[in-house]
Amino acid sequence: MHVNAVGHASVAAVFEGIKAYLATDGRELLVFRLDAHIDRLFDSARLCRLRLPHSPAELRQACLDLLAANEYRADTYLRPWIFPGGLIREQMVPADTECETVVDSWPFTSGLLTGAGCRAGVSSWLRVPAAAMPPRAKAFANYHNGRLALIEARANGHDWPIMLNDRHQVAEGAAACVALVRDGVLVTPSLASGVLAGITRDSLLTLARELGVPVEEREVDRGELHLAEEIFFMGTAWEILPVTEVDGLTVGDGKTGPVAALLEREYAALVRGESGKHPEWLTIVPMINP
To answer: How many other C-beta atoms can be found within 10 angstroms of the C-beta atom of residue 86?
Structure first.
């Protein structure tokens, strides 16, 4: 592959982040919601007017083949990404350009059940509005928006940013959805708030409803962050990350709240195959000589 092939072509590239968790018995990898991730990748490609070279079934199998070929015996992050093929030197990649596919992977350390928390601050950078770029597309170009917000947050003494949308309502973090708890109700910005249709978000909302936690998907104003009993980020990479401070104000008692803790326990047990819940979300990859 020529080095120039991933220059301007990467401007249009789309990708997915997928996690495979080591089962509690240490004998299998459990790929979490593989089909949902592959479906979203194809949605992103459609939104960005890219022509994918493979079917969903072929790409799904490629992810599983990679895990098996590398004989991973640890939690593993998978990243299938798709970019216009050939030697492209023009910035404006034409629609329906034929694409190339790469699936790469690396071990990761899960933050689940570690007690980790973070400090957040509302960013002056607004989330890319749907009228400018489709925020539902998981595209590399969209992440520059979050990158600038993260740089600002770190410069201001925070760990992570929370971004508002063009209506100055809460949208999401730099690379994760956000939720809060008010009066015992789990609240998260609706998909119309300019957020990525998060798969972890969908999973946690499903679990919350099954556990009897009231859930609301709606517009959220900035002030609600300052009044929340709990705030946490949720995403494939971040899993569930409680926010202990927002804009310099302590959230709750400054520790992981009861709703986040409940969801974290349920999620951790599910992704490692302990709970037996939602087996349709787990794709099993047996390990050779575990």
So the answer is: 12
CA atoms within 13 A on the CB side of 119: 11
Residue 8 pLDDT exceeds 80: no
pLDDT at 290: 61
For residue 92, give the nearest of 44, 49, 42 by alpha carbon. 49
Predicted confidence at residue 18, as pLDDT, reads 98
Structural domain boundaries enclosing 132? 118-271
- Residue 90 resides in a domain: yes
For residue 243, list its beta bridge partners.
118
| DSSP string for residues in 170-191 | EEEESSSEEEEEETTEEEEE-G
What does the pLDDT average to over 70-90? 89
**Number of structural domains the chain divides into:** 2
> What are the E-state strand segments in the chain?
14-15, 18-22, 28-32, 50-51, 76-84, 97-107, 118-122, 160-164, 170-173, 177-182, 185-189, 215-218, 230-235, 239-246, 249-250, 282-286
Is 7 strand, coil or helix? coil
pLDDT digits (tens, 9 = 90+) for 116-148: 999 999 999 999 999 999 999 999 999 999 999
3-state secondary structure at position 260? helix
Same domain flag for 97 and 195: no
CATH number of the CATH domain containing 97: 3.30.470.10
**Active-site amino acid positions:** 138
Both structure tokens of 171: 């949208």
